[in-house]
From TrEMBL:
Residues 1-25 form the signal peptide. Pfam families: Chitin_bind_4 (PF00379). One of its GO terms (cellular component) is extracellular space. PANTHER family: CUTICULAR PROTEIN 62BB, ISOFORM A, STRUCTURAL CONTITUENT OF CUTICLE. InterPro entries: Insect_cuticle, Insect_Cuticle_Struc_Prot. It comes from the Eukaryota. This is Cuticle protein 19. It comes from Parthenolecanium corni. Keywords: Cuticle, Signal. The keyword Signal applies.
């Protein structure tokens, strides 16, 4: 028990001395340089990106693709996929601040393309 107390006291004293030494050894800067001008730069750039990908696996019938381009607030893109009935679904979309999100969905069956209803337009997206 005596050894434990002796070790504890030694450790506490060492920490106090170390903290006191660090405080005294720290450099102190006094003054203010009024002549320096702070330069501010605006690093904002409108977002821009382009990507696309495709999967074509005849064994699992996983056939799909997608692309999208963004330039500032305007986003354009499309994706397609093979439906279980063998038709291909194509969704083409645009999105911007004024018009919101707009999508046109079409299906092609055996090379024939037909629209599957009106385009989707929502002011909430």
């Amino acid at each position: 028990m005596f050894f434990f107390l002796q070790t504890l006291c030694t450790t506490v004293i060492f920490c106090i001395v170390l903290a006191f030494q660090e405080t005294l050894g720290s450099p102190v800067f006094v003054g203010y340089n009024d002549n320096q001008k702070e330069e501010s730069s605006d690093y904002y750039t409108p977002p821009q990106y382009k990507y696309d990908y495709a999967v074509h696996d005849p064994e699992t019938h996983d056939i799909k693709s997608q692309w999208e381009h963004r330039d500032g607030d305007l986003v354009k893109g499309a994706y397609s996929l093979l439906e279980p009935d063998g038709s291909m679904r194509l969704v083409e979309y645009t999105s911007d601040k004024e018009g919101g999100f707009n999508a046109v969905v079409s299906r092609s069956e055996n090379g024939n393309s037909k629209s599957s209803g009106p385009s989707y337009n929502s002011e909430y997206f």
